[in-house]
Structure formats: structure tokens, C-alpha cells
Amino acid sequence: MRTKSKKENKINVVTLGCSKNVYDSEVLMGQLNANDKNVVHEDENDDGNIVVINTCGFIGDAKEESVNTILHYVNKKEKGEVDRVYVTGCLSERYKPDLQKEIPNVDEFFGTHDLPNLLKVLEADYKHELVGERLTTTPIHYAYLKIAEGCDRPCSFCAIPLMRGKHVSTSIENLVIEATKLAKKGIKELILIAQDLTYYGLDIYKKRALADLLKELAKIEGIEWIRLHYAFPTGFPLDVLEVINNEPKVCNYLDIPLQHINDDILKSMR
Predict the structure, then answer these.
(1) Fewer CB in a 10 Å sphere around the end CB: N or C, the chain?
(2) What does the alpha-carbon distance between residue 8 and residue 47 come to, in Å, rounded to a whole number?
(3) What pTM, to 2 d.p., does this model score?
(4) What is the pLDDT of residues 119-143, one digit of tens each?
(5) Is 33 helix (H, G, I), strand (E, B) or coil?
(6) What confidence score (pLDDT) does residue 152 get?
(7) How many other C-beta atoms can be found within 10 angstroms of the C-beta atom of residue 140?
(8) Are 148 and 170 in contact (CB under 8 A)?
(9) Are 89 and 70 within 8 A, CB to CB?
């Protein structure tokens, strides 16, 4: 028979998948910390009695890893080593009904936009005023900066729009606030991430505004490097190249998927 653990409430956040999931977990932990909750990230001793698993649902191997991780903690719950198991993230967003049916011992499943609801079951309040506040889990010299969420592109192979929704940019003002707070913590390098960096700004500024964002981030004292990940070639804003050339803080680096060198693959991908 399962017995309740005798551990004091400690929330162990387990992160699977890409850097965007890492960022989301950091935001979750920042909110929990602001609510005076005892929160850890992937605790080495595995002694959190409440577990939140931030899952990936993008490719087969990632789905398998996510399901195996859920089953691992559900098993610990059955043994009385864990009191509650919650699942969030992309796998949960995409397959929630199936997961509820197949793994009923999970206490609750949450999607990618359910942060306030997840916090509520963890007995914490979502604090809107915490712009840019998060508990970073990366090495002290760098941090991810997610500048947008979701994607509007209908690529044939990709389920990101199903799991993350339409493209939504974060304002330059709020990103500067967040980056400034990171710099005060000692962060030297910002790694900009989104589903598509080059689409940034089209929804809120009615133009591609990545270059404008880079110029503002480069002004922040303490930030020494700015690196661009997930740059989609189609419609690439050429003024970004000018900023890279003229601004020493912006690295001479572009992260572009390998498949973009082959026209046949691009056609099959739509």
C-alpha cells in the first residue's frame, strides 16, 4: 500500500527537451520562489516530494524520454517516495487526453500556456509584476532569453504550432528589463531563442524588429556577448547583419537548420 512521504514540501522541477523548455522551467521556479516555495531543479538526491515534469513532445525519442520520466516518478509515487506528480510542457499540451487515460496516477496535466493554473495547484499565486524574474539553471556566464513564443509557419514536419500556438513577440521594453536583471546577476552572454528569431516584431511592431532589439540589448552594462539561435533564412532581416557587423557585442554567429541547403527537402517540408 502506498504511504505518504514524510518529507517537507519541496518542489523538484525536471526539465526535458530544448532550451525553450529550460527557460519555461526557470520562469516557473522564479514564480515559486517569489511565493516562498522550496523549489529545486533536477535535484541530485531526488528528494523533492512534489515533482513537476516539463516535457518535450517534438520527436519520437523526446516523447519516449518524457513518457519514461513520467513513469519513473509515478512509480516513486506508488512507493510513497513522492507525494504528487504534475506534468506540463509540450507532450502534455499535445497528448493530454491520451496521457490522462494511459497514466492516470499523474495528479494533473498542464499545457504550455497553463502556468497560472499550475501555480495554483502548487499553492502559489501568479505574480504579473515579476517581469524578467526567474531562477536560472545554466552556468553563471550565460542565460537564454526567449524573445517570442509560438510559430505561424505551416511546415509539414513540425507540430510546434499545435503545442506552442501562434507567434507572439515579447516587447523590447520587457526584454530589456529581463536582460538587465540577468546582467546584474553576473550573466555575460545572452542566447536569444524563439521558434523563429527572424519573425520577431511582426505581430506587435508590424515589422521585423530583431535589429532594433539587438541594439537595445547591446546597451546593457555587463552584457558582453549576444548570440542568435533559431534564425529562419526566409525573410531574414538584412539590417540584422548590419548590427552584427557594427556591434561588437553581437556574435558573428547564426544558427540555421541544415535542411535549408536543399531545395527538395524544403519543398517536402512546405
Answers:
(1) N
(2) 10
(3) 0.89
(4) 999 999 988 888 778 999 999 999 9
(5) helix
(6) 78
(7) 10
(8) yes
(9) no
Task: Extract the runs of DSSP E, i.e. beta strands, from the chain.
Answer: 11-15, 39-41, 50-55, 84-89, 108-109, 142-146, 148-149, 168-169, 189-193, 225-228, 250-254
Which residue type is seen at 242? E
Strand positions, DSSP E, 198-249: 225-228
154 touches 270 (CB < 8 A) = yes
Query: For residues 241 and 131, what is the distance between their CA atoms, to the nearest angstrom?
Result: 29
Q: pLDDT per residue over 70-94, tens digit each? A: 999 999 999 999 999 999 999 999 8
Could you identify the residue written with the cell 518535450?
56
Which of 185, 127, 142, 136 is CA-nearest to residue 29?
136
| Residue 39, Cβ density class (10 Å: 0-12 exposed, 13-18 middle, ≥19 buried) | buried
What are the cell numbers at 82? 513522492
Amino acid found at 100: Q
d(CA 250, CA 270): 31
* pLDDT over 90 at 35, yes or no: yes
Instruction: Enter the C-alpha cell of residue 183.
Output: 546582467
- What is the distance between the alpha carbons of residues 28 and 117, in angstroms, rounded to a whole number? 11
Report which DSSP code applies to 261: G
